[in-house]
Write a structure and sequence with these properties.
The complex is a heterodimer.
Chain A: E1 19-27, E2 33-42, E3 47-51, H1 58-65, E4 73-78, E5 81-82, H2 88-93, E6 96-99, H3 111-116, E7 122-123, E8 126-127, H4 129-143, H5 158-171, E9 176-180, H6 188-203, E10 207-212, H7 215-221, E11 224-229, E12 232-238, H8 244-252, E13 271-281, E14 287-297, E15 300-305, H9 312-320, E16 327-332, E17 335-336, H10 342-347, E18 350-353, H11 357-361, H12 368-372, E19 383-384, E20 387-388, H13 390-404, H14 420-433, E21 438-442, H15 450-465, E22 469-473, H16 477-483, E23 486-491, E24 494-500, H17 506-513
Parallel strand pairs in A: 3-10, 3-11, 6-9, 9-10, 15-22, 15-23, 18-21, 21-22
Antiparallel strand pairs in A: 1-2, 1-4, 4-5, 7-8, 11-12, 13-14, 13-16, 16-17, 19-20, 23-24
Helix pairs in contact in A: 8-17, 14-15
Chain B: H1 12-39, H2 43-52, E1 57-61, E2 65-69, H3 71-96, H4 104-122, H5 126-155, H6 159-180, H7 216-230, H8 232-242, H9 244-249, H10 254-280, H11 292-302, H12 310-330, H13 336-350, H14 359-376
Antiparallel strand pairs in B: 1-2
Classes of the chains: A alpha/beta, B mainly alpha.
Chain lengths: 539, 377
């Protein structure tokens, strides 16, 4: 095998694990510590689940196993020998295959062509198409994965395409298949079929590493599991014996130092922001949002908890005016602002902190001043009769830099040189400039250091205390719990639970986020009931 | 939680940017010299002619005193400089909105035609005919630039394709009008009648066609600079070009900025057309060579779409073209050589992102080492 082999330290008699991580850490070039002293082992012929929230370090582990990233410290052992997986080629040679979350097939090629791509059987200088088809058919038969080798991939369902990806890994001789959130793109029926297939493959001697954040997939599908939280291993064990509560505790953990925020519930006054029956479909026809209704009172923060990709991005885009809602509408003080474009929404008093700061939040090559005026440049006093008042813009920028504590020497500097925290302060300063009545804050402190996070959160609370409505969409559960007056859990595009922010813990939310529990007909209207203890009991 | 280091500002970014243009030019000129050496028996002289051929010669003799010669050649540098500056600006404006509109050629042809037709039809004193011709040229450029802009935002038609196709349409239309309607029957070839003297820009240099339009170049560059830096529309164009998703998120009228960037670029191609018809040629031949617009592309790329730099880049380029003519006339190297060097310049400038990020540092180290070595020696 083309790998560096060194002596191993395996207790005599025990069969070495197929793959083992020993004290593996990964620090990216930008300083992010994605994995910290991660150790676990995967046995031959098992389905091993790696579980954790977004940003827990699952993907980094997977990338290191597939040779896409190199560990900064620690060792990866294959069959008990230290392995250097310098690139995916080395990983493939070592018998490791990857089925990515977003399938990477050539749509215009046939199934057989996709599977043999990169290692095609040849006859002389020509591709041997017939042999490729025969080989693929034989492979599919051996592993019991039904595919039609001559079918075009473009015409296949996602589930079938995923089978093709698995076969592709097997064709290259994979003994270990890494599956990155395989059910994320599947319907429940397809997912069921996939897991049945995986079980058969494992019975046939294959080993599977399943990366997931769904409790059900751990307990029903896997043999053993390892939980990651904040880049560290926070638990591991036998998947069949672990309880859902126990697993949830390992995944969400406990708030390290919960932010103390005084909650200012106002009994008087109705809803400032009213969202009714909002729904939208993705391009492929699946529902991204379904019958979303909630209210936010003036001076209230409504937290949206949930695993990313369950409709949060669509909700933020519709409320910000970037996308048209399929059904339903949202209004401020009775004035409908959805479906009329960003500028109309902003004119109605909406502001938004976008989730992807570098892509949507700032223009990295433009100056801090240019970034600060992006929402209000067309109005007095920043412009008159089409002319920018750049003197006023610069004065304003100097004021905002001082007020928000942005660490930079000049407002003329390109915003791209700022750290994430300082950049986000600029985004927040811009969005609060027009004194919004409704702020949609998506992942406001993602990738921001603790100090800046604290000051950003204080600004949100300040805004709330000033009488604005805030929708806080965050995958940081601690943040949701610390700031929200009420919490709605979003799963599969629907609100599946409604909680009182002051009297709920991560343990209560966990089962709803992972789909283990659901509050029937839930909404987050001011009058809607909270999820009570009465509804406890597993679905 | 370990303290994460602050996000590192790429230290080499600034120096790499400063090094980029000189490096690209030096590399292109060096490669050009290597090729010249391959095809010429006296490459050094040929290359020197290329680089200095556009210079006027200043002589002193006892009989005649100071004499400046070869002014005609220098005049042609300035003539080219004027056309290329306008064309460079015409491309720089849409480039700033990240629209790769290549329609300057067609806009210029139609604008020249419009200016010529208005001059011929209107006649009268200069204060009537010249502004009318200029207005017609700029309006024509604007309109012909607006079309691909509208096609882009309405139908998502790729602007590269539409502008190239519209160039073909414009050139054919130009030839058809001149052949069929504006032809001077008295001339021995297909050409419009000569424009009346009142329609021509006042001359600045004898024996050349350098006119008062020269003064319009800095004015136009300043206007574009002002537009981009000081107006809300210019701000929108810059934001849309720098980060389209950001512009949308902020609520900017993205489609309007895209459309107007292409149309406003057309205004400056229109000025280039005006320069052709009412200053340089003074009557329009049917076989006006297409492709000048692509030289404008080189200028805009050289200037990095920075309006302040466009005249500089245009001058450099005009200089090279005139030097090329001199080289062709007085050495054994053909002017195709210059086309090769031009192409190399574009290649090297486009490839600036391929310059390895460590290169400036390595160069600095090399510099220090060779300095130390020299001292040791």
């Amino acid at each position: 095998m083309p790998m560096n082999l060194t002596s191993t330290a395996v207790s005599p008699g025990a069969e070495p694990a197929l793959i083992e991580l020993r004290g593996v850490s990964k620090r990216y070039a930008n300083g992010t510590l994605a994995n910290d002293d991660v150790s676990f082992s995967v046995r031959r012929g098992e389905i091993h689940a790696i579980v954790g929230e977004n940003g827990a370090g699952k993907s980094t582990v997977m990338k290191m196993l597939y040779g896409l990233e190199q560990p900064s410290a620690g060792q990866i052992l294959l069959d008990g020998a230290v392995a250097q997986l310098a690139d995916p080629r080395a990983a493939i040679a070592a018998g490791i295959g990857l089925v990515p979350q977003h399938l990477k097939l050539v749509p215009s090629f046939t199934v057989a062509q996709n599977i043999v791509l990169g290692s095609e059987p040849v006859r002389g200088l020509l591709l041997d198409t017939e042999r490729a088809i025969l080989e693929v058919a034989a492979l599919a038969g051996r592993f019991g994965l039904a595919v039609e080798p001559r079918a075009r991939v473009a015409g296949l369902s996602i589930g079938e395409q995923q089978r093709v990806e698995i076969l592709k890994a097997l064709y290259r001789g994979a003994r270990l298949v890494l599956m990155d959130e395989p059910s994320a793109v599947l319907t429940p029926q397809e997912a069921q079929a996939l897991f049945g297939t995986l079980r058969k493959l494992v019975d046939g001697g294959l080993t599977v590493v399943l990366i997931t954040h769904k409790l059900g997939e751990v307990r029903d599908v896997s043999d053993r599991f390892t939980v990651l939280r904040g880049g560290r291993v926070s638990g591991h064990g036998d998947a069949r014996r672990v309880g859902a509560d126990e697993l949830t505790a390992m995944i969400v953990g406990r708030a390290v130092a919960p932010l103390q925020v005084a909650r200012a519930r106002r009994a008087d006054g109705g809803a400032l922001v009213a969202v009714r029956q909002l729904g939208v479909r993705r391009a492929d026809g699946r529902r991204a949002l379904d019958d979303i209704s909630f209210d936010i009172a003036a001076g209230e923060i409504l937290g949206i908890a949930g695993v990313e990709g369950n409709g949060q991005a669509e909700l933020a885009a519709i409320l910000g005016g970037l996308c048209l809602p399929g059904e339903g509408q949202a209004s401020i003080d009775g004035l409908v602002f959805t479906g009329r474009g960003v500028r109309a929404a902003r004119a109605a008093g909406v502001a938004a902190i976008p989730e992807d700061r570098l892509h949507d939040g700032v223009a990295a090559d433009m100056s801090i001043t240019d970034n600060l005026i992006a929402a209000d440049y067309h109005k007095a006093p920043l412009s008159s009769f089409g002319w920018l008042r750049i003197d006023r813009a610069r004065t304003l920028a100097l004021q905002l830099i001082a007020r928000y504590g942005v660490l930079v020497s000049s407002p003329d500097a390109a915003i791209g040189i700022l750290s994430g925290g300082n950049m986000q302060k600029v985004v927040l300063a811009r969005e609060l400039l027009a004194r919004p009545r409704f702020l949609v804050a998506s992942q406001p402190t993602r990738g921001v250091d603790i100090g800046a996070s604290q000051s950003l959160r204080e600004r949100l609370v300040e805004l709330r205390d000033g009488g604005a409505a805030v929708l806080l969409i965050s995958s940081d559960l601690d943040e949701i719990l610390a700031l929200s007056d009420r919490i709605a859990v979003l799963a599969r595009g629907r609100i599946v639970g409604h909680f009182d922010g002051g009297s709920v813990s991560a343990f209560d939310l966990g089962p709803y986020m992972t789909g283990a529990r659901e509050q029937g007909g839930a909404s987050a209207l001011l009058t809607a009931p909270f999820c009570g203890a009465a509804e406890a009991g597993y679905a | 939680m370990s303290a994460a280091p602050p996000v590192a500002v790429e230290p080499s970014r600034g120096s790499a940017e400063r090094l980029r243009l000189p490096l690209a030019l030096a590399a292109a000129l060096l490669a050009g010299f290597c090729i010249t050496a391959l095809v010429s028996r006296e490459p050094l002289r040929a290359y020197l002619t290329l680089l200095t051929g556009a210079l006027p010669e200043i002589d002193w003799s006892a009989s005649g005193g100071w004499q400046v010669r070869r002014l005609v050649r220098f005049g042609s540098v300035i003539e080219d400089f004027i056309t290329l500056s306008f064309l460079g600006l015409a491309l720089a404006v849409p480039f700033r909105a990240r629209q790769f509109s290549l329609g300057a050629d067609g806009q210029m042809f139609l604008a020249a035609l419009a200016a010529c037709a208005v001059s011929l039809a209107l006649g009268g004193p200069w204060y009537r005919v010249l502004p009318a011709a200029a207005g017609a040229a700029m309006l024509t450029g604007f309109a012909w630039g607006l079309i691909p802009g509208l096609l882009k935002v309405r139908y998502q038609a790729n602007e590269i394709v539409t502008t190239l196709m519209l160039n073909l349409v414009a050139v054919q239309f130009y030839q058809w009008i001149i052949t069929g309607y504006l032809r001077d029957r008295g001339a021995g070839y297909l050409v419009t009648p000569a424009l009346p003297a009142a329609a021509l820009w006042p001359n600045l240099m004898p024996h050349t066609h350098v006119t008062l339009m020269l003064l319009l170049v800095p004015a136009a560059a300043a206007a574009v600079q002002l537009l981009l830096a000081r107006t809300t529309l210019g701000y929108e164009i810059r934001a849309v070009g720098a980060a389209p998703a950001f512009a949308r998120q902020a609520g900017m009228p993205v489609t309007r900025a895209v459309t107007l960037s292409m149309a406003l670029g057309g205004v400056f191609a229109g000025l280039a057309g005006l320069h052709l018809s009412n200053a340089l040629l003074q009557r329009l031949p049917v076989d006006l060579t297409p492709g000048l617009g692509y030289d404008g592309l080189v200028v805009a790329l050289l200037a990095r779409s920075e309006p302040k730099s466009v005249p500089l880049a245009a001058f450099f380029y005009a200089w090279l073209r005139t030097g090329a003519l001199a080289m062709e006339r007085s050495t054994d190297v053909s002017r195709e050589m210059v086309l090769v060097i031009e192409a190399l310049i574009i290649l090297f400038i486009v490839a600036d992102r391929l310059v390895p990020p460590g290169l400036p540092k390595a160069l600095r180290r090399l510099w220090h080492r060779s300095g130390a070595g020299a001292e040791a020696a």
